[in-house]
Design brief:
This protein is mainly beta. Helices cover about 5% and strands about 25% of the residues. The chain contains 8 helices and 33 strands. Strands 1, 14, 15, 17, 18, 19, 20, 22, 23, 24, 25 and 26 form a 12-stranded antiparallel sheet that branches. It has a 6-stranded mixed sheet with strand order 9-8-13-12-11-10, with no helix packed on it. The longest helix is centred in the N-terminal third of the chain and has 10 residues, at about 205-215. The radius of gyration is 23 Å and the shape is globular. It starts with about 25 loop residues before the first helix and ends in an 11-residue tail after the last strand.
């Protein structure tokens, strides 16, 4: 579908794409996830695989009737939400609630970008892009200019952090010309940050600088009304949240012996947030950020003598001697042999108030602890809130939290709504297919022409407003379930999935979409393919579409189907919702998801196993173009596409770890993006817009 010029252009035919470890460079695996894909999956539970499950009868009543529950969805990024304090009270909680709507709007009118390995951002003809903000740009008034060769913890704490991921643009009161930009900083890549970095002997200044480079950045930006250009502003609302920012634990785990440490015997105050991947916005004006690969920050787990404690840590990937970053040398809380409970204080969903610098971030323990990619919100017509979450690990699970407290709208309701995520029920998903015996791991479609079936949400624990609760897992207390959520999922027989990452409810239909990024161990060592994960050695991943029964976010049953089975369209083991495969862009390793105002799904990729640079893709979900994947942009070599925000006239993308290729370093950079010759690569947020006045919006015609 797209042009493929010769090699001098950087555009490459799929037949000569190089092969990496699931498309990701080894150096990225080391610093991002602790080299998880080269290790045994931590889920060695004996719960049944989907392919071995006897078909269960799940009622579909309500799927064929009128919508029972009116709903609204708040997708991650690109939503118009009031801040916690900015603007008048009536501006808060202004997300409307009403009947869901079917269908999508304008088709995708841009010409797809071809796969390539250029050291540049490539956008379609007729579009323009610009850098919004880069690693090290000052955001706090009085912060110093970035100096790559003379970084300090103090400077970094006032500058834009490293490895940007999730991004959101929020209203700044009633100001149409300014918005709050909120960005996660997932992890640090030390060999690319510092000249002369010695991984075996980092300095205290380097380590403390990386602590300051983690977390989040909140910065006010000015909007150019004639384009999609955004300009950062230095303003008192700007804020950095780092690995040392004090945070509150809330819910049943707060005060539990499982989270008490020498520095915090109360078990209620945690320093910092780590490995913040994706996130979500709430309709009451706060942001949710997910702590993901927290395992690699902790050292000396092998020194523990308690076998049960070591096994629980290993289920979260925490094992071995020294950590790769050696943080335990500089702060004992990262030394598991000295502080065995400190890892239990990470791996949560964190709620922040972007527009209120005095807001203390809150770790919401009622939502469970695992490798959170994100948490995204859907609100039922009666105000019940559901939050969807994926655990980004091979053979781990999809989760949902359903609130007991209903959301209130109007004046002075923020205090009430801030308690929504502290009381409710945490569920894990079990999937059943309707083509038993037909899934052989090849990716071949079953006889009914779709990978589809039914499912159940299995309750794990209920949390009450007073911090008590009820466990639904035999032998586990409520704090046990919430701290060791993976073990609870194992115990109830949840379905093992292929790295569930972003999970996003659709803003119109209420359907829920989940990206399953890949799983190189599917079909290996007794882990057979199943209908929701239909390919052995799944290098390219897939996208799942889930419909709650009765269109009710609080439902405990659902139907599902695979929207996409990703990869080279010339490969028989790919599927694009039935759309002709000679008219789609190749796509590999789906990660972050978003929706445009017309309802099309946008997909950012991570670790393209077809050899091209990662990119941003769009796909219609309804009508004759359903499944027609079109590539909108590619990011520079070595980079990952993250955190898309898709507005009517603007796309926002985080370009993470540009130039992060094996063999490269600060001394030998593999990229010069975004600043050009003689510069170091810098993770950055970019905006993209359509050129010319009076354009019909971002996607065009």
């Amino acid at each position: 579908m797209s042009d493929r010029p010769d090699a001098d252009t950087g555009v490459i035919p799929l037949s000569v794409h190089p092969s990496h470890r699931l498309g990701r460079q080894a150096v990225t695996c080391r610093y991002r996830c602790g080299d998880a894909c080269s290790q045994e999956p931590p889920n060695n539970s004996g719960n049944e695989y989907f392919g071995d499950v006897v078909a269960r009868v799940v009622s579909r009543r309500g799927m064929l009737t009128a919508l029972v529950a009116a709903a609204v969805v708040v997708p991650a990024g690109g939503v118009a939400l009031a801040g916690c304090t900015a603007g008048p009270p009536e501006a808060q909680d202004r997300a409307p609630r009403g009947p869901t709507q079917g269908g999508t709007g304008r088709p995708l009118g841009f010409r797809p970008v071809a796969p390539n390995t250029l050291d540049a951002v490539v956008v379609p003809e007729g579009y323009e892009h610009a850098v919004v903000i880069r690693w090290g740009d000052p955001i706090i008034p009085g912060a110093p200019a970035f100096d790559f060769g003379a970084q300090t913890p103090q400077a970094q704490a006032d500058q834009f952090g490293y490895n940007c991921d999730f991004a959101a643009l929020l209203p700044f009161g009633n100001d149409r010309d300014r918005s709050l930009l909120v960005v996660n900083h997932e992890y640090t890549s030390e060999p690319f940050m510092f000249l002369g970095y010695d991984a075996a002997n980092p300095t205290r200044e380097q380590v403390e600088t990386t602590w300051a480079a983690h977390g989040l950045s909140i910065v006010l930006v000015a909007r150019d009304p004639a384009s999609g250009r955004l300009t950062p502003l230095q303003n008192p609302v700007n804020r950095r949240i780092t690995a040392t920012t004090p945070m509150e634990l809330t819910g049943p785990v707060a005060g539990s012996p499982l989270v008490q440490t020498t520095a915090d015997p109360s078990g209620r105050i945690v320093l910092g947030t780590l490995n913040n991947c994706s996130g979500g916005a709430t309709p009451w004006g706060t942001m949710l950020t997910g702590e993901e690969n927290i395992n690699m920050y902790f050292g000396n787990a092998d020194s523990l003598t308690d076998a049960a404690a070591k096994a629980k840590l290993a289920r979260y990937g925490i094992s071995g001697a020294a950590s790769s970053r050696k943080w335990e040398r500089f702060d004992p809380r990262f030394d598991v042999s000295r502080e065995p409970n400190e890892p239990n204080r990470f791996g949560w969903i964190v709620e922040i108030g972007p527009s209120d610098p005095a807001f203390v971030p809150r770790k919401r323990t009622a939502m469970g602890r695992f490798k959170h990619e994100a948490a995204t919100i859907r609100v039922a017509g009666n105000g019940t809130v559901a939050s969807y979450m994926g655990d980004d690990e091979r053979f781990d699970y999809l989760y949902k939290f359903v609130s007991s407290r209903t959301m209130r709208t109007g004046r002075q309701k923020l205090a009430h709504n801030l308690g929504i995520l502290t009381e409710g029920t945490l569920y894990v998903a079990r999937f059943t297919g309707n083509s038993p015996g037909e899934i052989d791991g090849s990716g071949k479609l079953p006889s009914d022409g779709e990978f589809d079936g039914t499912g159940q949400w299995i309750p794990l624990a209920r949390s009450n407003v007073d911090g008590t609760g009820e466990s639904f897992v035999a032998g586990m207390s409520v704090p046990d379930v919430l701290v060791h959520t993976r073990l609870a999922g194992d115990a109830v027989g949840a379905t093992k999935m292929d790295r569930p990452e972003d999970v996003e409810p659709h803003p119109r239909t209420g359907k829920v979409y989940a990206s399953l990024t890949n799983n190189n161990r599917r079909g290996v060592d007794g882990a057979p393919a199943d209908e929701p994960n239909p390919r052995n050695a799944n290098r390219h991943g897939h996208v799942l579409e889930l419909t709650e029964d009765g269109d009710d976010p609080a439902a405990t049953t659902f139907t599902w189907k695979l929207l996409l089975v990703c990869g080279d369209p010339n490969d028989a083991a790919t599927y694009f919702a039935g759309f002709p495969k000679d008219q789609v862009s190749p796509i590999s390793c789906p990660d972050n998801l978003a929706f445009d105002p017309s309802g099309n799904l946008w997909i950012a990729t991570d670790g393209n196993a077809l050899g091209s640079n990662d990119g941003l893709f769009a796909v219609p979900l309804d009508g004759p173009s359903r499944g027609q994947v079109k590539q909108f942009l590619t990011v520079p070599r070595g980079a990952e596409t993250c955190g898309p925000v898709i507005e009517d006239r603007l796309a926002l993308v985080s370009v993470q770890h540009p130039g992060q290729l094996d063999g490269a370093s600060a001394e030998q950079p593999a990229s010069r993006w975004p600043d050009g010759p003689d510069s170091q690569p810098r993770p950055s947020v970019i905006s993209v817009w359509k050129i010319g006045p009076n354009q019909p919006g971002l996607i065009g015609m």
